[in-house]
Amino acid sequence: MSAQAAQRLGYAVVVLDSDPLSPASQITPFRVPQAWNSVAGTLELAASVSVITLENEWVLPSCLEKAEQGGCRTYPQSNTLQILGDKLLQRQCFYNHSLPSPKFRKLSSWDDAHQASTEWGLPLVLKSRKGGYDGYGVKIIRNAADWAKVDVLEPKEWYAEEHIAFDRELAVMISRAPSGGTAIYPVVESRQTVDGNRCDLVIAPAPSITEVAESMAKEIALRAVEAVVGVGLFGVELFAVGDRMIVNEIAPRPHNSGHYTMDGCITSQFEQHIRSICDLPLGPTDLLAPVVVMANLLAPSDGLFDLRKATAAALCASSDLHLHWYGKQEMRIGRKMGHMNLLGKDIQETISRAIAARAAFWKGLT
Amino acid sequence: MSAQAAQRLGYAVVVLDSDPLSPASQITPFRVPQAWNSVAGTLELAASVSVITLENEWVLPSCLEKAEQGGCRTYPQSNTLQILGDKLLQRQCFYNHSLPSPKFRKLSSWDDAHQASTEWGLPLVLKSRKGGYDGYGVKIIRNAADWAKVDVLEPKEWYAEEHIAFDRELAVMISRAPSGGTAIYPVVESRQTVDGNRCDLVIAPAPSITEVAESMAKEIALRAVEAVVGVGLFGVELFAVGDRMIVNEIAPRPHNSGHYTMDGCITSQFEQHIRSICDLPLGPTDLLAPVVVMANLLAPSDGLFDLRKATAAALCASSDLHLHWYGKQEMRIGRKMGHMNLLGKDIQETISRAIAARAAFWKGLT
């Protein structure tokens, strides 16, 4: 979606991917057919473009560093990715910048985790330092049986974090340009699937948020992005607990909780990202309607599908919905296959329509 | 832009084009590298897709017919293109369907044109039956010297039309699905460049249009599309003369005067086109703001360009503008290189901002 925004602005997009049918590979004829996290591939890419960006935060910082050393601009920069690619370093960075954080502890052994649980109480959260997402790489310790499950893991690859009984999850998209411009989107609420691990709905603006909370969330989010010297678009996730806000984590890229901006804001997060990394003036972040709801399309099963029937059913349910299907070749249960955006006037009415259209979509698919 | 709309909906797009750097070729890895108006290329394309559409009306109807005979759906259909690809047949079709038309006459010799000018008076309009656009293929006869200029042309390739001293040019985008659904966009005003030949600005909705005129324009436009049995999206151009409306012509594809819908309407003309040809439910055509202005980017000179500087200058002038640059490889004076959309509340203010941003753009480009 970033690539499409770049193309609209007239940029030619080169994709680094060995898969000719990945979502990004399907929308450009220009591709470096190498692994997306290889140094050789990154250098070949760097030789053919004027700026590099990424679509996931697992790109190795060392790859970006090599490109930077060769004189290619990469946004986010390798030092930003160095911090954000390791959730413990990210936590330490936020803590060092006095951002409101949960208690956390580096682990040399599982004894350190037990010690933390003694001090802070259960439940205790264990997070994988690298590679976690959507609930992968998070273990919640509630009892002795849960401890037994983690005993087989390597403690140094994890860290311990205080469990936050939050009221709701908020998110703020923030864009920063190399020459200093900043754009901050409205504070939105992200509602998770029943298992708590995946984003299900995003509601913009966050329902009944006070002006004070809105400003606080934006200020914390901006400080967090500044703490990691971010350039590009960043999704900042926050926990709201009573009248406190706690930084959960930052994604150094356009984020699922910012997909509502595609049809719901004057400037989409993807165009904003491209404007940032190309050091163009940033755009306004105003909503185009009183309410925008984004509903994720998480695969309900494995396998192939008949997309046309599903699309027709969803558009029958709500002809004004904006469907975005990512062109992934097959479904795997829980996989993010696409999303829907709906503009409306009333929060509950818009949510209901989004849920009904999504149900119609999945019914049509199978 | 149609291809991008299709990709967002999850369709894979195959382009028939021998040029690997044409605008459409730059946004998909799937290409049939043959001439876009060749039978062989069309049949190869037909073998790999479930529906064919076009981006210009000069595709030979015979190419589409071959694809149709092979069982491939093509929208618009070959019989629609047969009529619209010949401006005389188009005129005759509108006349046969009692649509308000200027007087017109088929020409066997230039004597027939002289006879028409005697009956209707000067100026007289001569139009090329095939291939004309943007003022190419239109000759206005005002005096004896003008007659001398056309004498060298083949009269059977032209037809004569009454000159209409219109007050303004209006346009309506209309989409029809194979199973009968219809979507009609707001009536817009199209303002031409000083030479009168190219679309310069489009203002949506048409300033101070009465409800009666709005309904009349929509009704005539719909009847015109029905007259040619159109499936897909059609741009209908109308002349407003006092309280009369006259059909100028129909483009059987998303149209320049509908580009405002990309950022200005719930459903863009391109998504609507894709929904039509894929027989999906059509979307609402409501404007997202009280006023939307589209400004064409017509190349002021030949040659290469520094796009980034121009984009930065335009976004500096108006950071909320939506820039669409088509990725054409070089400028030729007068060539449509892209367009800008601006949303606003006040017509004059929005037009002024669009013109200022466009001036900044061209200043930045060179």
How does this model look, in words?
By secondary structure, chain A is α+β, with helices and mostly antiparallel strands. Chain A contains 12 helices and 17 strands. In chain A, the strands form 4 sheets. In chain A, strands 9, 10, 11, 12, 13, 14, 15, 16 and 17 form a 9-stranded antiparallel beta sheet that branches. Chain A has a 4-stranded antiparallel beta sheet with strand order 5-8-6-7, with helices on both faces. Chain A has a two-stranded parallel sheet with strand order 1-2. In chain A, a hairpin with a 2-residue loop joins strand 13 and strand 14. In chain A, helix 1 (2-8) packs across helix 10, helix 3 runs antiparallel to helix 4 (78-84) and helix 11 (307-317) packs antiparallel against helix 12 (347-365). The first copy, chain A, is globular, with a radius of gyration of 21 Å. The model of chain A has no long low-confidence stretch (mean pLDDT 95). Chain A binds chain B through residues 4, 7-10, 12, 20, 25-31, 266-267, 275, 278-284, 288-289, 307-308, 311-312, 315-316, 319-320, 323-327, 338, 343, and chain B through 4, 7-10, 12, 20, 25-31, 266-267, 275, 278-284, 288-289, 307-308, 311-312, 315-316, 319-320, 323-327, 338, 343.
